[in-house]
Amino acid sequence: MKKMIIAAMLLVFYLVGVVFADVSDAEIRKVYAEVLETKLLDTHMDATITVQGKENTTLKWKWIGMNRVFLWEFTKMWGEGSELYLLEGLGFKKVIFTNGYGRTAVLDLTKKKWLK
């Protein structure tokens, strides 16, 4: 079911880009960040999701509960149908995870490895 939802989201973002040809990939990534933040709020996760960089290719995920266990579980799901798969498909290159109090981890989606 989760794979179907993610596939549907990718299709919607693709169609938005096709229907509104003047909408850039950077704008689509920004809208995705807003959608993800709302989705997380719906699951009671008070996180702030923003994009960074000239083309919005870096996603910043700020959540006070960010810890190694969350990062471990999040990256174990890598593969078709996962949130990381969706991020790659939307053209994100990095994800910055932070708790806002000095603990930060950077995931390079192009190399599929942690930078720090």
Q: What is the helix/strand order?
A: HHEEHHEEE
Q: In which order are the strands of the major sheet placed?
A: 1-2-3-4-5
C-alpha Rg (nearest Å): 14 Å
Beta strand count: 5
Fraction of helical residues: 40-55%
User: Biggest β-sheet, characterized?
Assistant: 5 strands, mixed
Average pLDDT works out at 84
Decide which structural class fits the backbone: alpha+beta
Q: DSSP strand (E) fraction?
A: 15-25%
Q: What form results from the Cα inertia axes?
A: globular
Tell me about this structure.
With 116 residues, this protein is α+β, with helices and mostly antiparallel strands. It has one domain (2-114). Helix content is 45%, strand content 19%. The protein contains 4 helices and 5 strands; from the N terminus they run ααββααβββ. The protein has helices spanning 2-19, 25-42, 68-76, 83-89; strands at 48-52, 58-62, 94-98, 104-108, 113-114. Strands 1-2-3-4-5 form a 5-stranded mixed sheet, covered by helices on one side. The model has no long low-confidence stretch (mean pLDDT 84).
Question: In a nutshell, what does this entry contain?
Answer:
With 116 residues, the protein is of the alpha+beta class. The mean pLDDT is 84.
Keywords:
116 residues; alpha+beta; 5 strands; 19% strand
